[in-house]
Amino acid sequence: MALVGFAAIPVVAFVGVSGDSAIGYLVKSRLTEAVDAGGLAAARQVDLADQTADLEMFFDANFPDGYLGATIDGPYLTPSADGFELEITASALVPTSFMRVLGIDTMTVSARTVIARARSGMELVLVMDNTGSMCCDGVSDSKIETMKAAAHSLVDIMFGSNETIENFWVGLVPYTAMVNVGDATLNRHLWLTSYTPSEFDPANWLGCVEARSYPRDMTDDPYTVQAWDPALYDNNYDNYWDDREEVVIAHLRRELSYSDGNTLPTGVATLEDLIEEYLVAELNPQPGDDYYDDDEELWTHVARLVLGMDADHTIWNWDDNEIEDLEDYLDPHDYGGSLQSDLEERSVLLMEAWFRRDYEGLDDDEDWRQPIIRDAYAEGNEGTGPNLGCGPAITPLTATRSTIEAAIDDMHAWHRGGTTSNLGLVWGWRVLSPRWQGLWGDASLPNPYFDPDQPTDDTNQPIDKVVIILTDGNNEVYDHHSDGPDSSDYTAYGRLGEGNVLENGTGTPLTDRSDARDEIDRRMSQLCSDMKAEDITIITITFRQDNADTQALFSACASPMDPDDPSGERLYYDSPTNEDLAADFDEIAAELSRLRIAE
User: Fold this and answer.
1) Are residues 102 and 134 in the same domain?
2) For residues 533 and 465, what is the distance between their CA atoms, to the nearest angstrom?
3) Between 596 and 422, where is the model more confident?
4) pLDDT for res 312
């Protein structure tokens, strides 16, 4: 019997080893699943602290505490130097049962995974809303600053710690109610139907263009097929930047309901005639008050109207004290210099003051902008000039991280005109389209579309083409003064009353702002379909806006998450808060990075 007992020990040991090994296998399998899940979650974050937090959260969810009595060491995260790989390790101390007979109380199992970001080719274009509603710079929670920070975060994720990545390019298309393609220093004037620099004096053409006529406003045809007209915001009472007399005439015509800018009623041929007629309308002279025949009297009544003098106040000889009083009035409004002695010039000056004060809604004691070129975003709605509302230029595809980051920093909120996301999107297409290869400056870019049915070679590379478009508003034509010339501000489609937006592209001119918006939305919807037909991935974002029609437009525009399920969930992100936008950009970057388990 003793011999039988001794013989049983190896049998028990063998059975024990087998049983404990099975438990060890189960622990290792569960540990590996937890490490993989935690690693994939961690790789979708940017900051090490966030990576660690997500690693631990997903690891714990996949490896319950005390599972089969195991004690966990880890998980530990080690990023690679370039940020493109994360190594995750963990081990588990598992108590034995049968193996204790052999003096083995515990066994250790471990798991390791490496999460790598795929480095397949991609051309990525950010189409970013730079309209006035994105204002204001320098405010911590402003939309424009939040958008720029989110775009920088995306670049951080995509580039890792690298300045360049093989076969990866990024472009930027800021848009307002028009798009800036780049100025004459880049030879972009060669893309124009005509360019007369003197028309922009005393400024230069910044690079914005008008939309081509339908349907080429929504195609990727290059300028060699059809050129563009340069965008020139004309000198008028809602954008005074050039000849003062012309603007006063425009004001007076508007006040007197003269809609025809080329002809005037009989007997009204000069500025003085217009001033006289306006004064008659405003002052309502009584029969016999024939003071308009005298220049000094005319000047007196201009001054009386503008300066708010009562009807009994008459200025006769304009002595030095009275001239000084008027100069003191004008100085706070940034005119400076001496008051002109010519009576008509005096009248022009004060009539201009009257109309600008009326339109800007400013009181006498407020600063009042000098009528000179003020195209910069910092002037807001009070800016003036031939380039008003023309934002920063397109940054074509570049492989250099610092170039695209500088372009992101250069984005600001540009006022006036409105929002035309369709034009931003179509220029995003033109930045990606092979039909533009070499036209942006780099002879090799953009790359040809990839044809999966053909052999991969130097001319057929798997380069993904992706557009991310963001807006905070609706497609609309703006009218800052509520009664601008031709019923709107100037946009890439001109002024709305000019009738350049036609129903369905070829029908009735749409001069109602709501009807024009519907047509622009329709064109954008068709554009989205045309781009997706070229296998361009479109990712859309609505930011801090709650218009259901715009949300539906951007959602339908987005590509499906699963190309094999076109009716499924789409690559559309609605970001109602600043925090949501930051998280959405990080998620987009992680998805574009194509995380995979490398080891």
Assistant:
1) no
2) 12
3) 422
4) 47
